[in-house]
């Protein structure tokens, strides 16, 4: 391999972090006890939509429209807080404002259905969503970094004890 090819090859760190300087959203994942719960719920919703002949888009509806939508769509993700920890993310594909059947303005966050685990980080509860700067976003978990053989609750306890 020549020097030019080596220089073009990204380092592992480049592949394990969302785009630097990007903007993301942080949101509580209500109703899911684990990343597995979230991925199962997404799969069920996509299967339901396919059975009804609807497009295979996966979306999360929220009340507030992000004012910085252009920045979010330039490579941003929605980071999910599950049981007090940021555990995963989904890439934002589109942000669509709409008015629901009751005349209330809402926002559809169209997400890539792929859930990417991130290095777990504690997060306090909050309402709605928060902006998350790219430099403050947790790194993507490297392949095999999370010990998937251990239940997520046990991993959470081990992290709290400083053992993971």
UniProtKB/TrEMBL annotation:
Pfam families for the chain: DUF1489
Protein name as it appears in the record: DUF1489 family protein
Classification via InterPro entries: UCP032025
Superkingdom of origin: Bacteria
Organism per entry: Aquabacter spiritensis
